[in-house]
Fold this sequence. Notes:
alpha+beta, Neutral endopeptidase, domain 2, disordered N terminus, protease, signal, MetalloPept_cat_dom_sf
Amino acid sequence: MHSLHRILAFTLLGTASALIAAPTQQSGIDLAGMDHAVKPGDDFFSYANGTWVKHTDIPADRSSTGPTEALEELTEQRTADLIRNMASTHPAAASNERKIADYYAAFMNETAIEQHGLSPLKAELDGIDAIKTRDDLARVLGGELRADVDPVNATHFHTEHLFGLFVAQGLEDPAHNMPYLLQGGLAMPSRDYYLSQDAEMAEARTKYLAYVTALLKLAATTDAQAQAKAIMGLETRIAQAQESLLDSEDIHKANQVWTLANFAQKAPGLNWKIYFNAAKLGDQQRFGVWQPAGTTGLAALVASEPIDTWKALLRYHAIDKAAPLLPKAYAQLHFDFYGTTLRGTPKQAERWKRAVDATSGDLGDAVGQVYVKRYFPASSKTKVQAMVKSLIATFDERLDTLAWMTPATRAKAKEKLSTLRVGVGYPDTWRNYSELAIRADDALGNHRRAVDENYRYQLAKLHQPVDRGEWWMTPQTVDAVNLPLQNALNFPAAILQPPFYDPAADDAANYGATGATIGHEISHSFDNLGADFDAQGRLANWWTAQDAAHFHADTQKLAEQYNHYEALPGLYVNGQQTLGENIADVAGLAIAYAAYHRSLHGKPAPVIDGLSGDQRFFIAYAQSWRSKVRDAALRQQLATDVHAPESIRAQAVRNLDGWYPAFEAKPGEKLYLSPDQRVKIW
């Protein structure tokens, strides 16, 4: 999406992704999971995955199931084993291994968590209680600003803090880092949950009010019900003040740089000098303001809403954010709403899984170093690098075949492609955790100190040269990412394994699954947003007017195509909201298909398990999007995510000419597109 999240990182996967049963056939295809009763030309996802869908149940502690979840489970188990082994070897004090073992132990120490109660929050809650004036409020709001914009694991920016911070190079100044301020202030996933008239959203609001009331009562708030209503009212006004997801996605609207004087003039109501001093940003002269109208609206609310209401909101947000690491009653209440009500997940994950996820989140590089040493051999890295090289070469060749592209634009596109930086497996340098204090009996304190340490890390970047090789994913993350500001790609170790990538499998399957993934990420550099950035990661127009008009027309055809996909009864995919990901899916698949044929060196592909090379390629692609997702989670995805649902992403095959003869797709079938309707962007 055209938010800072997407400017910094286009991720491959959305909120629900999927599992391929590990195939035993040499083709690399799960033949048993297919449903031959479905015509490929009517529903390619169901043809490739229908039997699997019929016989697969979503685990009670998941909102969806599929290959990503399977690899996440495997990674969790491996990481848990590594952590437990660390503890048994008694690593040296202050070492990364000791910090990992102690962090995990503290999360698992439920007795200590129960004993601590709300005491780890005492200083924060006392600070909120002490607010008397608007300047006090500005100081507390600034003091809680954190670098909690996650460009990898979130599909859009979301924080309960009034604003969130991200530090990255300037959109028009790639030589210097800049602090970006983004709108926040909501506990539910997006403003739509507060404002939508959809019946399911309205029901979620009713249950949310009950949750806020229950949480406040648990925390011994005397007027819990009245405070909950006031909090709900203020969050609703915050939602009204925020810019919409589509508005936030416009990079050119978002390219706003303000000085401190601009904040006072353009967003009165908040004492910005006090705010930025409290946030340790008082020395900064320029800020990127991603949602200027939202920033103005939120600042006005600081002045107009009663101080007591703000204090109630801040106190509730502090408890709500901490709830997963508070005593069991808080953690369960939190999961019941955010897990069960909003995502339809009946059961909370086992504690050891949550402990692994938390440890990997707060000590990501430390865990990653241990993980790759054990599970990502150099041979795997070499093979994936070869596939990346092949796909980039194929993309370069395709640029020469685009009759619509003028020589000037083609030269710039080739320059961008030739300077694309590709990271495979893990970063060249690892983050230093030597200053982070971890205690074996302080789960919440460990997390809060890790968040603070990350904030210091981000602030330090403001006084350092831009690191073009910075990674935004840990090696144990099952995903991949394109970083437009760095003109770079990251492919973490955890996604480079079966079922996505199997060095022992047939090339057709690997190109259809991992090849399309790599192509997807390469294509993000040239989608409706990536195409706005040049080879240096600078926001700059490198297109001729003629080429830009052609590109825009084709992308809008794709947006309209996706607008017609009905994901739930009466709920359709938003083709504009998901456009960048859809472009990358279609273009990445086309690149992978061409690269697969290039790899054959003019020889015919073998027939394996009764399937031609093209059939194996396309089925592997559709099986890589195998998924089963709960309706509540799918509803949340449609409202907040820039990725179309997986069952729909598999249908991207209808835009490739080669798919039609491979499966004898004919006019009159639901997916059939006449040649002039097929979208070919790259």
